[in-house]
UniProtKB/TrEMBL annotation:
Record EC number: 2.1.1.63
This protein's record includes keyword DNA repair: yes
PROSITE patterns according to UniProt: MGMT (PS00374)
Domain of life of the native organism: Bacteria
Gene Ontology MF: a single term: methylated-DNA-[protein]-cysteine S-methyltransferase activity
One GO process term, biological-process aspect: DNA repair
Family: Belongs to the MGMT family.
Broadest EC class assigned to this enzyme: transferase
Catalytic activity from the UniProt record: a 4-O-methyl-thymidine in DNA + L-cysteinyl-[protein] = a thymidine in DNA + S-methyl-L-cysteinyl-[protein]; a 6-O-methyl-2'-deoxyguanosine in DNA + L-cysteinyl-[protein] = S-methyl-L-cysteinyl-[protein] + a 2'-deoxyguanosine in DNA
InterPro entries: MethylDNA_cys_MeTrfase_AS, MethylDNA_cys_MeTrfase_DNA-bd, MethylDNA_cys_MeTrfase_DNAb, WH-like_DNA-bd_sf
Pfam families according to UniProt: DNA_binding_1 (PF01035)
Protein name, as recorded: methylated-DNA--[protein]-cysteine S-methyltransferase
Organism: Aerophobetes bacterium
Length: 178
DNA sequence: AACTGTCGCGAAG
DNA sequence: CTTCGCGACAGTT
């Protein structure tokens, strides 16, 4: 009995000044990683093999969207199918809530908590820290209540860059809270 | 039991 | 006004 290995496709694309790696099973996205160094990606060894094949439509579309996004235009990622099985219902509720934050807006961890009738603010951060779909689930739009930026699993440099791309960063005065 | 991508308060500079 | 320490909070490992 040989375990049937799932057919996974990998997209690696430059977005603004960093790289994005997206993995899909053809139907859904499985994960996304962001890095300034292309060879950080675990699947990099597959690239020579993969890039000869046509990308599945889902990754084609994502590639276009990411490039457009990186160029500073508004992109709606809310319809991408994501593989979220295996995560707790709380975690998924947090992600669903964060997905509602529009492009170019932001809110606080507390604000998300309140929408879930919850005061475990730190649990919100925990749920976001394991977000496998940065950009698609826009956890970079969640910052601290006092206006400081908080953390980011992909590195603060990228969080800042994403907010800058969306015109939020020089931050506050005229930036719109959600 | 020990962690968090937090918050808000009080105390001190 | 700004920073710092600390306890409370809820969920996960």
């Amino acid at each position: 009995m040989f375990a049937r290995t799932k057919q996974e496709s990998v997209l690696i694309v430059k977005v603004s000044s960093f790289w994005a790696e997206a993995v899909s099973d053809g139907r859904k996205l499985l994960r996304i990683c962001l890095s300034y160094r292309k060879d950080d990606f675990q699947s990099i060894y597959k690239l020579n093999f993969e890039e000869k094949k046509r990308l599945p439509p889902l990754l084609q579309r994502l590639k276009c969207d990411l490039i457009i996004y990186g160029s500073g235009s508004k992109v709606d990622f809310s319809c991408y199918p994501l593989q979220t099985e295996g995560y707790s219902s709380f975690t998924r509720r947090v992600w669903a809530e964060v997905r509602e934050i529009p492009y170019g807006r932001f809110c606080s961890y507390k604000w998300i908590a309140q929408r879930l009738n919850n005061r475990g603010y730190r649990a919100i951060g925990k749920a976001l820290s394991i977000n496998p779909f940065p950009i698609i689930i826009p956890c970079h739009r969640v910052i601290r209540e006092d206006g400081s930026l908080g953390g980011y699993s992909q590195g603060m440099r990228i969080k800042k860059e994403l907010l800058r791309i969306e015109g939020v960063l020089p931050l506050l005065p005229q930036a719109k809270m959600i």
